Amino acid sequence: MDKSKFTNHLPLKDVTISDTFWGPIMERVRTQVIPYQWEALNDRIPGAAPSYSIRNFKLAAELTHPEQDYGVPRDIGFGGPVFQDSDAAKWIEAAAYTLVWHPDPALEKTLDDLIDVICNAQQSDGYLDTYYIVTGLEKRFTNLKDHHELYCFGHFLEGAIAYYEATGKRKLLDAIIRYAGCIDRNIGLEPGKLPGYPGHEVAEMALVKLYNITGDKAHLALAKYFIDQRGQAPLYFEKETERNKNDFYWKDSFVRYQYYQAGKPVRDQHTAEGHAVRAAYLYSGMADVAKATGDDSLLEACNNLFNNIAERQMYITGAIGQSAYGEMFTYDYHLPNGTAYAETCAAIGLAFFAKRMSAIAPRAAYADVLERALYNGIISGMSLDGKAFFYVNPLEVIPESCLKDRNCHHVKIERQKWFGCACCPPNLARITASLGSYIHSSRQGAIFTHLFIGSSAKFSPNGANVLVKLETRYPWEGKVEISFGVKEGTKFTYGLRVPLWCKKFSLSLNGADIPYKIEDGYALMDREWKDGDRLTVNFDMGVQFVRANPHVRENIGKTALTRGPVVYCLEEADNGKELFRLHTGSPGDINVKFEKDLLEGVTVIDVTGKREKDWAGGGLYGTDETVFEDRKLRFIPYYAWANRSAGEMAVWVNK
Ligand code: FUB
Ligand code: ZN
Predict the structure, then answer these.
(1) Among 94, 312, 344, 576, which residue has the least CB neighbours within 10 Å?
(2) What is the pTM of this model?
(3) What is the mean pLDDT of residues 532-547?
(4) Do 581 and 521 belong to one domain?
(5) pLDDT given for residue 616 in this prediction
(6) pLDDT confidence band for 66 (50 / 70 / 90)
(7) 528 shares its domain with 642
(8) How many C-beta neighbours within 10 Å does residue 182 have?
(9) Residue where one domain finishes, among candidates 229, 246, 263
(10) Structural domain count of the chain
């Protein structure tokens, strides 16, 4: 493993975002989404499915400390799915990130009060999971496969770390470190412990994050153990199921333990399989452990899995998880558009994985996937007003199918206010609120820019402070200006990602040519940088008519329009019904314009195309020639669909 290539992403506190695209989204998350989700977690959204999340914490706190009274009836029982704790934990994480870039004493107070409740629910040995605290602690750790204790623990950790980093307050962090100790005492290979691991991954990456703060080798060792033990024979989940007479939902399915990526050791897994969110979180944790321990075989497994996803199982929107059955991956080149599951959380998980891989070695192939997911399959999960959410993000929607075709029942034609299983909305909030930490990474002597997001960021690549400022109207325009603030001339390598979608670009420094070499898709400039140096890059943002690999049977004869990182779609609101009858025209006949009053400001693509006309004679089958009429087609960014009216949508269009 070439450790000299390792980089670290910049901490959130060192980046200030001023981006014209992401800035408003982040602000909406802060001002709309976070308060709205707080109401949802407290079951105060009329007409929305109750969360029970905060109620469960209050109930658990009352049961743990009978002198406490949060006004929750003690005989009421646990509410919602077993993993409801994670929704509050993700909310804490997202809210904490916003505090970094927008201090808010009232929000901090709400968080402190919630943390008090959570800590009151904690058991004396550190255990902290409201499902078992409420339903019976004697059953804890008896169903790691399905009951999400270690998943909630992982999310608690992520939330606690974020809050500690935002405020310096350790109460939640210390509580969760005690919980980590409890887990360590109960789970592992040593005699008397359960040789188990998470049924839903996330704790692996959270523990590495914790290790980076505490430096406590036990935290890294627990993450490594979870990864190494997964799928080892005899299968823990099989033994656990037999021992505790647990259900095994996937018993008669082809996927069995691979649903949990636990059917074989992780280093023997070469294709992404099973539940997509679980998989993406596992692979992210594997990348973290590989980097922290310098484990070559683990990194090789990460690369195999990354390539399998990016080259064979990822939608053009960066979405993953083709199948509603099991919210799972299916198989290579199987990318159905209308029945896609494409869970928002899964695209977010892929972004986590891609971010980690690009820290291990800056390569455009990694950051391109990150960017693809961010600008498309992730933010499609949220309405433009931040008040409604998609769980499922298909690439084609026909409203009648969603009602009458069982295979499309999971597809909603309008974003929902909340969900009984509300994993996606807080996940969206936490990734957007922490976007500052995705833009750059650095190592001794080098800074890399992975994403083009208007911001200023502080580095010290060689001891001296460097300020890197990005100004751009990306993704609508391809010009990015990068200026450097340094006290004295400072020598370091600056690496700028050249997106793989970009066929042509120009680069200049202070108006003159600058020498660079391309390595792994980054333009590397090794020089002494002076204060005020201004680098200008212009990425050609021509509209591209993209094809899918011919192995993808759904997209044969079709094209998808992209411009820069943005994937486009046709919507009924602009193009009428039966979008599947439309054909694009010639790539030459295109009009691209920015519509500032449409969908919060988007660049649209107008193309002259054709529509198959009705048959003169009617009838279901026949031999008539296809007759076309001319049609103007309007393409809008995919992420912005379903923000005007419910209707059809299609990404892939007949050529
Ligand atoms: O199981 C917890 C979360 O609920 C998963 O990550 C999502 O896919 C949803 O099933
Ligand atoms: Zn989700």
Answers:
(1) 576
(2) 0.98
(3) 97
(4) no
(5) 83
(6) very high
(7) no
(8) 19
(9) 229
(10) 3
